[in-house]
Amino acid sequence: MLTVDFSRFPLAPGDRVLDLGCGAGRHAFECYRRGAQVVALDQNGEEIREVAKWFAAMKEAGEAPAGATATAMEGDALALPFPDESFDVVIISEVMEHIPDDKGVLAEMVRVLRPGGRIAVTVPRYGPEKVCWTLSDAYHEVEGGHIRIYKADQLLARMREAGLRPYGTHHAHALHSPYWWLKCAFGVDNDKALPVRAYHKLLVWDIMKKPLATRLAERTLNPVMGKSFVAYATKPHLPRAAAGAVAEAGAGAGADTATAAEAGAATP
Fold first, then answer.
1. In angstroms, how far is the first alpha carbon of the chain from the final one?
2. Residue 120: which of 228, 237, 227, 239 has the closest Cα?
3. Nearest-angstrom CA–CA distance, 92 and 18
4. Residue 217 burial by Cβ neighbours in a 10 Å radius (0-12, 13-18, 19+)
């Protein structure tokens, strides 16, 4: 079940992709199938080991085209272990609502994304999420749980402040909103409640079979009650004048460093 719509977020074979906070790896697997060079990163070591196993199984089954690569690794979203401008594409799906320093995460994503690169951010949508919080404290008051609810304009403002240029948005997973409302109403850990079990069967059937009726229903309902809000953005290229100033500053810093080194070498 993908939240990012790859028809709105084009991916080319050979693109360097970071799936940040990859969880079980759903978006990373799709990028791998599309021929990308994928890094799936998460702080949960157990999930990363499972993602690595699935990558290996996909390679053995021939699900990824020639040239595609996939790496699963543990890491900290606030201190990414990559050089500047390492990726063409960054995906962060249903993660930012968990992290206190969301501005810091955005800054790190922008740092590792090349100019002209693309980023997809998905978070729980304000309305459906607010219903969940109202129905159940246990839904969000848990360690590592949701600590904020984003309004669409708030998330887009955060992205612009980080230097990104949003170019599109949509909502996804409308059929999943009632499931979580039922979970919150009957107890988030109570999977035995009949309405919860019945609706879960419906969702599994929908995911496996993809019948036209439910696809059309979800497409119609997404603008009204879609569970996720999805935003796409690019990292702009530096204006030519600004790029030249940065280059000159870097060259000047290099000259100063060389002068200092020479002075140090001349010191008896």
1. 67
2. 228
3. 8
4. middle
- What tens digit of pLDDT does each residue of 71-88 get? 999 999 999 999 999 999
Whether the CB-CB separation of 32 and 70 falls below 8 Å is answered with: yes
Note the pLDDT tens digit of each residue in 170-194.
999 999 999 999 999 999 999 999 9
The continuous run of DSSP H or E covering 232 comes out as strand 228-234
Q: Residues near 198 by Cβ (< 8 Å), separated by ≥ 6?
A: none
pTM of the model: 0.87
Residue 25 in contact with residue 2, Cβ under 8 Å?
no
Mean pLDDT of 150-162: 97
- Residue 209, pLDDT > 90, answer yes
The C-alpha atoms of residue 103 and residue 111 are separated, in whole angstroms, by 12
